[in-house]
Write a structure and sequence with these properties.
The chain is mainly α. Helices cover 50% and strands 9% of the residues. The chain has three domains: 2-77, no CATH class; 86-186; 203-376. The longest helix is centred in the N-terminal third of the chain and has 22 residues, at 40-61. Residues 86-167 form the Phage integrase SAM-like domain.
């Protein structure tokens, strides 16, 4: 048995699990042929409830139904109304991040989601159970467990990202299909983040890092990559890993992995390979990717090596790879360049409508780069 939807001259059919036997139908002969009809008792027993429910859903569409085809209506009214498991969806969504190459985001969200699942003590979890009260309880739990405030904020942001993705997946507001009704994050706000810790070094510290004698090859590569980041306007290690493969390049041109999918310009930038950077580009382009299989492996090695460099240079506390980027930005500002110009050198998002009218001109970034590096002389 199939239920037919007819609308505006088009038809679509909804499958059912029912089969009719000869005893369930009546047949009428006429000049035009034999007409077979279901007996009322069969319809009432097996089909009336489904048809009534479908009609109810069509009525709920209201005037929107005039803009739909029979096929559209079928898709809307037969959409799975079963329970949604937020845990199953979250695991699937987070796994997809890894397949997209977003390893850092994957690792963080996997860890955050695991903590949340452990907190609930459930194997399955309906999105409707995620309330602002539960979020506050979870926040208190994280604080009691000793999680730092910044990590707590990131954790809650990851849970929100999963929940929002689920709403996008299962809801269709335009057609009035709402399977996840609640909005817990509209009533919950995480604690405010503390002011960002400054990661700026002075010129003498940069020189000491550049000139320090290291015995480990891995430490030498990490130090060289740190200095290359400083020379190349604070470029991230992930972008070197993804794009620095040709030792003969004159300019390092790439789309920044962190933001390329979020910007109309695809986060593209072109940075000059200056004399200071040339020997490092020659030695790292290609061998870097041969030595490390993934950006995550590279970042782990960088973290360990930079801790080792701190032990050699006791006057440089808590050294991270981001110190190169922050220091470049601070020194560029001290050289007299505006915040907007420094942001351009760092490949930050454009904010001015005027930018849409101006062609890219990398000479400004070249000047900023040269001004900062001249401070090392």
């Amino acid at each position: 048995m199939k239920i037919r939807i007819t609308h505006k001259g088009t038809s679509s059919y909804i499958d059912t699990s029912y089969y009719a036997m000869k005893s369930d139908v009546t047949s009428t002969r006429s000049d035009s042929g034999t007409k077979i009809r279901l007996k009322k008792v069969f319809i009432d027993t097996y089909l009336t409830a489904s048809v009534t429910e479908y009609r109810k859903k069509i009525n709920e569409l209201g005037a929107r139904v005039e803009f739909l085809t029979a096929s559209d209506i079928k898709e809307i009214i037969t959409k799975d109304n079963g329970q949604i498991d937020l845990f199953e969806f979250g695991d699937r969504y987070i796994k997809a991040l890894l397949e997209e190459g977003r390893e850092t985001t994957y690792a963080r969200r996997k860890s955050s989601f695991k903590k949340f699942k452990e907190f609930t003590g459930r194997k399955v979890f309906s999105p409707e159970l995620l309330t602002s009260k539960l979020l506050k309880d979870y926040e208190r739990h994280l604080l009691k467990s000793g999680l730092k405030l910044v990590s707590l904020i990131n954790n809650m942001a990851d849970i929100q990202a999963v929940f929002n993705k689920a709403k996008y997946e299962y809801n269709d507001e335009e057609l009035g299909v709402i399977r996840i009704h609640n909005s817990p994050f509209s009533r919950y706000s995480p604690p405010e983040a503390p002011p960002s810790k400054k990661r700026t070094l002075d010129i003498d510290s940069i020189k000491r890092i550049r000139d320090v004698k290291l015995t480990s090859v891995a430490d030498q590569i990490s130090r060289d990559l740190f200095m290359l980041s400083f020379y190349m306007c604070g470029t991230n290690a992930n972008d070197f890993f993804a794009y620095l493969t040709d030792p003969t390049i004159v300019r390092f041109e790439y789309t920044r992995n962190k933001t390329k999918g979020k910007r109309a310009d695809n986060a593209f930038i072109s940075i000059k390979v200056v004399d200071e950077a040339r020997p490092l580009v020659n030695s790292l382009a290609g061998p870097l990717q041969a030595r490390y299989n993934t950006p995550r492996g590279l970042n782990n090695r960088l973290s360990e090596s930079l801790k080792g460099i701190v032990s050699v240079l006791s006057e440089v506390p808590d050294l991270t790879f981001y110190h190169a980027r922050h220091t470049f930005a601070t020194l560029a500002r001290k050289c007299g360049y505006s915040r907007e110009d420094v942001g351009a050198a760092l490949n930050h998002k454009r904010k001015l409508i005027t930018d849409d009218y101006i062609d890219d001109d990398w000479t400004l970034i070249d000047k900023i780069q040269r001004s900062v590096l001249d401070l090392l002389k």
